[in-house]
Amino acid sequence: MLSSLLDRPRARLPRNDPALYERLADHWWRPRGRFAMLHWLAAARARLVPPAPRPGAVLVDLGCGGGLLAPHLSGSGYRHLGVDLSPSALRQARRHGVTAVRGNVLAVPLRDAVADVVVAGEILEHVPDLDRAVAEACRLLRPGGTLVLDTLADTALCRWLAVGVAERLPGLAPRGVHDPALLVDRAALAAACARGGVPLEIRGIRPRLPDLLAWAGGRRDTVRMVPVPSTAVLFQGRGRKTDHPRSPQRHREHPRRTA
Ligand SMILES: C[S@@+](CC[C@H](N)C(=O)[O-])C[C@H]1O[C@@H](n2cnc3c(N)ncnc32)[C@H](O)[C@@H]1O
Q: Where's the Methyltransferase type domain (predicted)?
């Protein structure tokens, strides 16, 4: 009786359940673990971070997870503060030099204008209140500071690719990590950023296919992300906080290159 209980596979969690990150805690830093794609995204995200504007400049990493951005910021001069709900993820982030802050991105326990850069990587599609998360990100930024984000678009194509396909392929996304209802409406995101004083520019990205095949065949440890013309699936955003919050506006595509 006891053995049959012990043998039972672990119950599947509801979608977007924070307990998933505790279950998969030992995957954060594995290049072929369930969070592999987050490593590729962290490298692409870091390329949007401007050089530190002054000694001791602060970068706040919202939903920092295991701190995968940290190696890409090494030597950049930023003090890297990571905010997350997951105790196991924060422990690992701390080991990689991140100053860990346990907190909710919907009510961040940090003062206004503390940050030269706020990063929101693969977090906005996990929160139930996009406006509030964006308002918090903008509140933390000092005027002239930079917001950097990447997330998933609220489109049928993205629901199919990010949830239907990626969650069935090892390394691209853990099963159940995304709730399709929380994917991000790009116009709503741009409007929320504008209300917070950050005109946002976005561009689509995807894994480079030859790298992805080589990674899948065990011939590469990482995959480069490359720009794509469409923002309908995975996209990055960047904007600089103005002194005067603007009225809502439509998002604009931007021509910067990744990779
Ligand atoms: C998909 S992971 C992304 C982690 C990291 N940004 C990266 O790209 O490697 C999402 C992270 O957000 C955290 N998270 C989810 N909801 C949160 C919330 N409301 N407040 C703070 N952290 C949250 C999770 O614990 C998890 O570490």
A: 60-149
Pocket perturbation via mutation, ligand 1, pick of 24, 26, 35, 123 by most ligand atoms within 8 A of CB: 123
- Classified as helix, coil or strand, 24 is coil
| Ligand 1, CB within 6 Å, residue ranges | 18, 21, 38, 41-42, 63-65, 68, 83-86, 89, 104-106, 121-123, 126-127
Residues 6+ apart with CB under 8 A from 27: 33, 34, 35, 174
Pair of tokens at residue 145:
């500071």
- State both tokens at 74: 């090494």
Ligand 1 atom with least separation from CA of 68: 9
- Model confidence pLDDT, tens digit, residues 121-174: 999 999 999 999 999 999 999 999 999 999 999 999 999 998 889 888 877 888
Query: CATH code for 15-248?
Result: 3.40.50.150
Predicted local distance difference test score (pLDDT) of residue 10: 62
- Pairwise CA distance, residues 77 & 80, whole Å: 9
pLDDT of residue 55: 92
- pLDDT value for 56: 92
Give the residue, out of 85, 149, 234, with the most ligand 1 atoms within 8 A of its beta carbon, to mutate for a pocket test: 85
